[in-house]
């Protein structure tokens, strides 16, 4: 069965307007929490630069309870969903 991440909650936790960097903490349907870093370009586009799984639950992909890089494979999907949730709140 393939892993299909679904973001159910997303909040901006830091925003630096001077350099265009901001971070969102996203909660997935399986209760996994991730911190996603974004960058705003000069034209106003926002794109994800990195993602980290917060260690509140084991990784839903590999089931490790320590550092892994499984969420990097799903970063575009998670980042887009989190950004859309934050924009709909505003």
Automatic annotation (TrEMBL):
This is Uncharacterized protein. It comes from the Bacteria. It comes from Paenibacillus chartarius.
